[in-house]
Design brief:
Blueprint: H1 8-19, H2 29-40, H3 45-64, H4 67-70, H5 79-103, H6 106-133, H7 147-164, H8 174-183, H9 189-224
Helix pairs in contact: 1-2, 1-9, 2-3, 3-6, 3-7, 5-6, 6-7, 6-9, 7-8, 8-9
Length: about 220
């Protein structure tokens, strides 16, 4: 969308190197880092700002659709609410995909589905971690397997609220509070916090690993210029 001629490998390098800055207080320094690195490599400030804007739009939209799955848990344990929520979720994803492809461009659509897939994966990783640490495993096998959908959706909802909360580095503190609120009726607070801590360790480890890969990609891209 920015019109930049830089390679995909270069983009991975810049993104991965700057990503660790999200753990700094302020929750904006990873965006600032990409701006600085991109401008240092000759990309215009306007193009980088446009890229950041569209990234935020995609993050919010892709995360926001999961709220649809969370809502029925506060309307009652009726199967029709849950079925309606899943239908609304699928329809929303389909509508966003078609609308963005026709009225924005195919790159937005591809980015949306990639981000959505990543959030689904992240949500299920948290689901498995919570299953591992929880003593109330019967919750995972009741209510027509609703927990299989609700727990990942609750995790993504908490991630989204942490993302849009100013000042919270990587949503630290915010995500925990939201998850306790959403899942506290089903699990002990200590289990939720432990699952969040373990998921944080997994996430940070992944970001550090990604940093070294991105650094190698960036060196190759610079040497190729």
């Amino acid at each position: 969308m920015s019109g930049s001629v830089h390679t995909f490998r270069w983009a991975i390098g810049v993104y991965g190197i700057a990503q660790l800055a999200k753990y700094m207080p302020g929750n904006i320094f990873h965006f600032a880092g990409r701006q600085v690195l991109g401008m240092a490599d000759g990309v215009s400030a306007k193009s980088l700002l446009k890229s950041t804007f569209w990234e935020l739009v995609i993050l919010v939209i892709s995360g926001g659709v999961f709220i649809i799955i969370v809502i029925p848990s506060y309307l009652g344990s009726y199967l029709q609410f849950k079925t309606l929520a899943m239908c609304a979720f699928v329809f929303s994803v389909f509508f966003i995909g078609v609308f963005s492809y026709k009225f924005i461009n195919r790159f937005f659509t591809i980015a949306f589905f990639l981000q959505l897939s990543f959030l689904v994966f992240s949500g299920f990783v948290f689901y498995l971690i919570l299953l591992l640490v929880s003593t109330k495993k019967h919750f995972f096998y009741t209510e027509d397997y609703w927990m299989l959908m609700f727990v990942p959706a609750a995790f993504v909802t908490a991630w989204l609220i942490g993302l849009v909360t100013p000042g919270a580095p990587a949503g630290i503190g915010i995500r925990e509070v939201v998850l306790i609120y959403l899942l506290g009726s089903y699990f002990d607070n200590s289990e939720i916090i432990l699952a969040v801590v373990v998921s944080r360790i997994v996430t940070v480890s992944g970001d550090v690993f990604f940093y070294f890969i991105a650094n190698a990609f960036r060196r190759v891209s610079i040497n190729a210029c």
